[in-house]
Write a structure and sequence with these properties.
With 89 residues, the protein is of the alpha+beta class. It is 28% helix and 34% strand. The chain has 2 helices and 5 strands; from the N terminus they run ββββααβ. A 5-stranded antiparallel sheet has the order 1-2-3-4-5, covered by helices on one side. α1 crosses α2 (64-76). The N and C termini lie close together (5 Å).
Length: 89
């Protein structure tokens, strides 16, 4: 997974996730650290609705309002991924 060319818009240290923007494509990703004894990162491509919601949360200075819930879902389903969702590989 190559996230080097992405801009980090928000980073949550306690829950170990970041909101990333890929300027070349305009895509937004929620990058989450997953695992127990071995850690790895997964980057879920966000839907347009999620992007609008998360950007509104950032503007309202409440970025964790919705992002943390989705990050927890990504962590909980890391072994199979969230059905029907696109991940950066």
């Amino acid at each position: 997974m190559n996230t080097q060319n992405m801009t980090t818009l928000y980073k949550n240290i306690p829950w170990m996730y970041s909101l990333l923007h890929e300027e070349a494509t305009g895509a937004y990703y929620l990058q989450v650290v997953c695992g127990t004894s071995a850690w790895y990162e997964m980057a879920l491509r966000l839907t347009e609705a999620e992007v609008a919601l998360f950007l509104a949360d950032l503007a309202a200075h409440d970025p964790e309002k919705h992002m943390t819930l989705l990050a927890k879902q990504v962590m909980g389903q890391a072994s199979t991924g969230i059905a029907g969702r696109e991940y950066l590989r």
